[in-house]
Amino acid sequence: MDNSQKKKIETPTPKSKFEDSPVFNYINNLSPIEAVRSIPTVQTFNSLSFTSPPPVFTSPHASFHRESRFFRCHNSVERSKALESLDRSVSTQEVVVASGEVDLNKEATLEDQEEETSCDRVDSPGTGDIVTQVLLDPSGGAPRGEDDGSSSQDVSVGLRKILDAQKENGTPRLMADAAELLVFRSPNDSEAFGCLVDKISSSERRFCAGVKLTKHRDITKDVPANDNQPLAVVPNQLVSNLHRGSMRRRCLDFEVLGKRKKDIPDDDQQTVGDNKAESSSKCVVPGIGLHLNAIAMASRGIKINTIHEDSTSVEIQKSFLGSTTPVQSQDIMRETLDQAESEPGKELAVEEETPKPLVFEELNQDSLQKKKQVRKVEEPGEGDSCKRCNCKKSKCLKLYCECFAAGVYCIEPCSCVDCFNRPIHEDTVLATRKQIESRNPLAFAPKVIRNSDSIMETSDDASKTPASARHKRGCNCKKSNCLKKYCECFQSGVGCSINCRCEGCKNAFGKKDAYLLAIMESKQEEDLSTIQQNSDLSKEVEQNHPSSDQPSTPLPPYRHMVVHQPFLSKNRLPPTQFFLGAGSSSFRKPDGDLSQARIEKKPLETVAEDKTEIMPEILSNTPITTVKAISPNSKRVSPPHIGSSESGSILGKRTNGRKLILRSIPAFPSLNPNQ
DNA sequence: GAGTTTGAAACT
DNA sequence: CAGTTTCAAACTC
């Protein structure tokens, strides 16, 4: 996140501004949420966020991972929808729309809201310290693994302090609400969010949309529905639920938690419902979230689960939970995931909207048996989100080991031999990790970088865009035709790209050929438009400055437009930028209208991987300097044609693309509460 | 569950 | 950087 933006979050906006905003008025009319309510939430929050030990694997690319994941969470259609919801909520202009969502989700529990607000307070000035104390202070935060109850109490106290502090500071409630949307922007939050979202990707991602958050909640939590919930709460529920605490850290301790989970009475789980078990298992995912591979796999696994939602699936997961899955007994995650599972019907409906299911359907067409097989394999796998390796010779200290590669310790279910990837050998693990990173700094970086295209228009076009998600290095398949999980691209659910050196690529998520073709087409398109624009510009210049010697090349006045051009250049992104993408949904229909989708995505793709922090800036009137620095295509700039009807459809599309991009800005939690 | 295939990771 | 070896997951039977 951009520092300046962060500051915005932490800096309370003048109350007057809020008072003037429709959101403020709306919220003002809502029955105030009493601090007391935060107590139950606090517990959940606590169990999720404060039980994690320090991360074992500290990668110099931590932030990178974070960001990558964060943006990946935006990659799918569901995510985009979710973010759209966020957008709506954030936007004061669309309060009405947001309220509609609230109605849909009014069953959302206060707990969620309180959790969110609690988190918000973390970012709130004057309360951050307290929160930090609560979070970091062992006595306050309760060491992980401790009884949730006690720890939750501690946290409750801490949060109460925060609450009080906030009251003293007079932090507007609106601020908190608005900040809710931004919570996951903090490093931990974003990471956790990214992890979980990634893990739960496809099916669970729909949470973000706030479409089906609720029923389950009401059933399980018996929390009165409140129509007067802050708008931001609904769309942000997933975030609020997921982002609390460092999941990465947790993942390293999943074994412990998993054991604890086993101890949890069945009643507990059943109270929450069968789905809970599943969700719990998915909660593990976050741990896996450390590695994109794992994430991607998990995403797919989950997807399959949801697609084939049935008793069997639940059963499998349950058994998995009960036995081997290192699951945390974290209510929040369960709840969140429960929500996703609680409404199979809806889920399926949502799935149908997403391309991914289709792909899997294709893949599963082989036979029903295959389906089940896949499910069986994937579920444990996704639970296996907490990777389980079977290493014999690598001692789980090489990237061969999925656990190690995922940045997680091996756990009980692993079948590894002479495993050194254990907390006991932390030093060894870290040393080895360092060594590997010295060799390849990105060794532990996400293999698949998903673009934040989700924030973009989630039209089919977008999903067809080949560049939505890509494997960072691409695959090298020779015999599998990129149709089996041998292929990392396929395994990650992304199409092959220019980075791939595969032969006979038939990747169901997107063939390399199609990708290249799309690039070529886009290039031609761009060239055409560039020429046209140049021509138009020349004419304009001549008209405006008949005596001017100015060349027809880009002119200063149009710089701001030029800024976008590089992004719009679809075929000039450096290889790494092709990785960015949104994966699952990408590539499926390469023959579709890619132009707009590409246009929309390009900007994000360009910055998603390493420049995610500046994305918001770029999206919103990014200074040309920044863009230039970011864009490798800066040299290829075409003069924008303003107000020219001759600009042609291409230009028009671009304009539209920009509009869409701007519209998506709020999806990345806007730092400006007034937005 | 054993054996084979595959491609990434590691090594030279 | 390319070729080879090692490795473990994915796959097949």
UniProtKB/TrEMBL annotation:
InterPro entries per UniProt: CRC, Tesmin/TSO1-like_CXC, TSO1-like
Entry keywords, A to Z: Developmental protein, Nucleus
GO cellular component: nucleus
GO MF term (any one): DNA-binding transcription factor activity
Database matches in SMART domains: CXC (SM01114)
Cellular compartments annotated: Nucleus
Nucleus listed as a keyword: yes
Ranges where the CRC domain occurs: 385-510
Region annotation Disordered: where it falls in the sequence: 108-128, 136-155, 529-557, 631-655
Main subcellular location of this protein, as a coarse class: nucleus
Family from the record: Belongs to the lin-54 family.
Full protein name: CRC domain-containing protein
Biological source species: Brassica campestris (Field mustard)
